[in-house]
Specification:
The protein is 44% helix and 19% strand. It has 145 residues and is of the alpha/beta class. Strands 2-1-3-4-5 form a 5-stranded mixed β-sheet. Helix 4 (83-92) links the parallel strand 3 and strand 4 (96-101). The longest helix has 17 residues, at 3-19.
């Protein structure tokens, strides 16, 4: 399976957020070509500023595996992770992070530049299906204005 394939599945999670009037961000965790968890932004639904798609997907993956580390797993998320999510991903020791749209306002690169905020062994890939991911988020915010 390709990064694009898995990002399309993360976009389906983002669609769930959109249907609940949440900022449409979705995430999945993949281990050995199997999806072990999914998450979508639930900040408003749960009244919890930490309920980002990445956090929900990570918690679900930990529960599924019975482990607090994910060194062989890949997280696919439709938007560049924020610093909070980077911290959670750092402690997960996740093997790879793949994101779609870049987030100039709140993404980690705004604060770290090109420096890796994740675990030293974590590999980062950005811009996978960035146009599709960006359009979904932009459309959401345009509808709110």
């Amino acid at each position: 399976m390709t990064d694009e394939h898995y990002m399309k599945l993360a976009l389906k999670e983002a669609q769930k957020a959109l249907e609940k009037d949440e900022v449409p961000i979705g995430a999945i965790v993949v281990l050995q070509n199997n999806i072990i968890s999914k998450g979508w932004n639930q900040v408003e639904l749960l009244n919890d500023s930490t309920a980002h798609a990445e956090i929900i997907a990570l918690t679900s993956a930990y529960n599924y595996l019975g482990s607090k580390y994910l060194p062989e797993a890949t997280l696919y998320v439709t938007l560049e992770p924020c610093l909070m999510c980077c911290g959670a991903l750092y402690w997960s020791k996740i093997g790879r992070v793949v994101f779609g749209a870049y987030d100039e306002k709140n993404g980690f690169q705004k604060y770290t530049g090109k420096k890796n905020p994740f675990h030293p062994k974590t590999k980062i890939t950005g811009g996978v299906l960035k146009d599709e991911c960006s359009t979904l988020i932009s459309s959401f915010f345009k509808s709110k204005r």
